[in-house]
Design brief:
There is one protein chain. The protein has about 450 residues and is an alpha/beta fold. The protein has 18 helices and 15 strands. Strands 11-12-10-13-14-9-15 form a seven-stranded parallel β-sheet, with helices on both faces. It has a four-stranded antiparallel β-sheet with strand order 1-2-4-3, covered by helices on one side. A four-stranded mixed β-sheet has the order 7-6-5-8.
């Protein structure tokens, strides 16, 4: 039987779908490589520095990853790939931030490496006194900036320094919900919580949609029992967090604050949106809502859907590295390519489980994915041929032929709940008119949005 994987010298990996070893290879590759595209027959993965450092943070070694690729690969693994995997994995842990006798210190396993990096103009401003033996003092306020500078040079820092406990909060998970339903964390949710806690005070939990990332976050909150700030993507998500917290923990509504355009409540647990904290009235002015980060003695900051974290929030996060940070997401891949900032400022991946495994266990609904390919009209083909890359994407995405197919699909599923997701408002507006269906966009008022979501449920 032929093996399912082909490893290429440009760090891409091809995985044959119609192979008996495909499920094993898929789950194994997800540990140290990123899925790039997944058409019918061949899936493409890419090995990156970040994907390898995340694997190293989970305890995987370079030789272990190389041996895995050798076992699954149809052909010999290119020598440069084996060398790069071992080299990148070895870099994680070579630099450590820890608490020393006089405060925060940068420590390196190789003193010569530390001296070389310390003299780099991008690093030197964030280092204090040279302590000798590959050690440098670091001012607490430069903790995040130093980690950002070093990872941009290809050297991730393992942060083992301490964290502020924050003001205490009496919170625990309920064992029974109001309707009498027993409530317990699932085994993988417990494992995700415990892996995060074992990591110290920073890190990201990766779970597929519907697997209960919010519940993992509440489990961490109950374990740490401290004032918590939660940042999420929308007012709808804010209110979902509030409902979940009141339903599944011992917190009351008076303990939980909503900090949005509608309400400005700051309480022991406060939930806000990325848009709110990164809003500024003038283009070059201050961010007035950044004050929320100092409004209470937070012991934990939760970044929901951390792959959507906007640039201004990275900036403030670099300055609050003494607070514990938990990122929750279904993917670590970002459209802006700032995975390195997530790694250095929020923390490395602490837990990941393949969605197919949770599907197999029955924890999430089975996903049946079908791709329908449509030709462009002759006129659109000409337009596409002469367009630039970004314009080509939009021309293909807005192919008018999609609308007829969409109508037939909706008719075919007339007895089901149907959710149509699109990227371009002009196209979605046309879909709305054709189907006479409600449309939710960023301009939909929160109250109307909540009503539509409730109706859909």
């Amino acid at each position: 039987m032929e093996k399912p994987v082909i490893v290429q010298s440009d760090r891409t990996i091809l995985l044959e779908v119609n192979n008996p070893l495909y499920p094993e290879a898929r789950d194994t590759l997800s540990v140290f490589a990123e899925l790039v595209k997944s058409p019918e027959h061949i899936h493409t993965y890419r090995i990156t520095a970040i994907s390898l450092w995340n694997a190293a943070a989970l305890g995987h070694t370079g030789p272990e990853i190389v041996e895995t690729l050798r076992r699954l690969s149809r052909y010999e693994v290119p020598e440069n790939i084996e060398r790069e995997i071992e080299e990148f994995c070895a870099r994680y842990g070579a630099l450590v931030l820890e608490d020393g006798p006089a405060g925060l210190e940068l420590v390196g396993s190789d003193p010569l490496l530390v001296e070389e990096l310390a003299n780099h103009p991008k690093v030197a401003p964030f280092l204090g006194d040279r302590l000798g033996g590959g050690r440098y003092a670091v001012a607490a306020g430069f903790r995040g900036h130093l980690k950002q500078a070093l990872i941009r040079l290809g050297w991730p820092v393992e942060d083992r320094a301490g964290y502020e406990k924050g003001d205490p909060l009496d919170i625990s998970l309920r064992s029974t919900l109001e309707d009498g339903t027993p409530f317990v964390l699932r085994a993988y949710q417990i494992e995700a919580r415990d892996n995060y806690l074992a990591g110290g005070g920073g890190g990201v939990v990766v779970l597929p949609c519907g697997a209960g990332k919010t519940i993992v976050g509440m489990g961490v909150m109950a374990a740490l029992e401290c004032n918590t700030l939660i940042l999420t993507t929308s007012v709808t998500a804010v209110r979902q967090w509030i409902r979940e917290l009141i339903e599944k923990t011992t917190l009351s509504r008076e303990d939980v604050g909503e900090y949005t355009g509608v309400l400005k409540e700051i309480r022991p647990v406060t939930i806000t949106t990325y848009q709110m904290v990164s809003h500024r009235p003038r283009k070059k002015g201050i961010f007035p809502h950044f004050r929320i980060f100092d409004s209470r003695n937070w012991g934990l900051i939760v970044y929901d859907e951390v792959h959507l974290l906007p640039a201004p929030v990275f900036r403030i996060t670099a300055e609050i590295q003494s607070r514990r940070r938990l990122g929750l997401t279904a993917t670590l891949v970002r459209e802006d390519g700032r995975e390195r900032d997530v790694f250095s400022l929020i923390g490395p991946k602490r837990y990941d489980v393949p969605w197919k495994e949770l599907e197999r266990q029955g924890w999430i609904a089975k996903a049946l994915c079908v791709e329908i390919r449509l030709d462009l009209t002759p006129e659109k083909r000409v337009e596409y041929a002469v367009a630039g890359p970004r314009s080509r994407y939009r021309i293909a995405a807005e192919n008018p032929a999609k609308l007829d197919v969409l109508e037939r699909l909706v008719e075919r599923h007339s007895g089901d709940n149907v959710l149509i997701i699109g990227q371009y408002l002009r196209q979605l507006e046309e879909v709305r008119k054709r189907l006479r269906a409600p449309l939710i966009t960023g301009r939909t008022p929160a109250r109307e949005r909540d009503r539509l979501y409730d109706d859909f449920r």
